[in-house]
Specification:
It contains seven helices and two strands, in the order αααααββαα. The protein is mainly α. The protein has a single domain, classed as Four Helix Bundle (Hemerythrin (Met), subunit A) (Up-down Bundle). The longest helix has 25 residues. The chain is globular.
Length: 176
C-alpha cells in the first residue's frame, strides 16, 4: 500500500464525515436561508453544495471513462455532460443530502480501490470547455479532494455569517 492510497483513503473519510456533519448542521436552517444569495462564488450555501456534488460526479465520470475497468464506479451516479458548473442537480435540500451521502459512499469505495498502477497511469479527458487534458491520475484524484475542501470552506464562511457553527473542520480531527 502506497502513501497516495493512504492519503486518498484519509481524504475520503474526511469528506464523508465532514459532509455528514455539515448537512446535519445545515438541516436546522430553512430553505430561504440555505438558498439566500450571500455573495459567494456560487451565491448561496445550497448552490455551493450543489456545485460540489456536481463536480465530484464530473470527476468520478472522468475516472470511469478514463479507466472503464474500475469496479467501484460501476453503476455510480456520475456526470459526463452538463450545461454549466452552476447546474443545479437537486432543488430540494433533502434530495441534495441523500445524493451527497450516496456519492460520498461511492468516493470511499473508489478511494479504497485505488492502486499505485491506476494513480500513476495517464488520465485523459476533456474539460468543461472542451480542452483536452492529460496527466497522471493522482493529480486528478488530488484535485477532486482539494476542490471539495475549497468550496466547503466557502460554505462554512456562509454558515458563520448566518450564525451557524460548522463545528470542527480540521482534517487531523477526522483521520485520527
Amino acid at each position: 500500500m502506497g502513501a497516495h492510497q493512504d492519503q486518498f483513503r484519509g481524504f475520503a473519510k474526511y469528506n464523508l464525515e465532514f459532509n455528514r456533519n455539515l448537512f446535519d448542521r445545515l438541516s436546522g436552517l430553512d430553505d430561504e436561508r440555505r438558498k439566500r444569495d450571500m455573495g459567494a462564488f456560487f451565491g448561496s450555501i445550497h448552490a455551493t453544495l450543489n456545485h460540489i456534488l456536481l463536480a465530484d460526479r464530473i470527476w468520478l465520470g472522468r475516472f470511469a471513462t478514463a479507466f472503464p475497468a474500475t469496479p467501484s464506479l460501476a453503476g455510480a451516479a456520475v456526470v459526463h455532460t452538463f450545461p454549466s458548473l452552476r447546474h443545479e442537480l437537486y432543488a430540494g435540500f433533502d434530495d441534495l443530502h441523500a445524493q451527497r451521502r450516496e456519492t460520498d459512499a461511492v468516493i470511499v469505495r473508489w478511494a479504497d480501490a485505488l492502486s499505485d498502477e491506476l494513480l500513476a497511469a495517464t488520465m485523459r479527458y476533456r474539460t468543461s470547455n472542451g480542452q483536452q487534458r492529460e496527466h497522471p491520475a493522482w493529480i486528478a484524484a488530488t484535485h477532486l479532494f482539494n476542490h471539495q475542501t475549497h468550496h466547503r470552506g466557502q460554505v462554512t464562511t456562509l454558515m458563520h455569517q448566518l450564525g451557524v457553527d460548522p463545528g470542527v473542520t480540521d482534517y487531523l480531527v477526522y483521520v485520527q
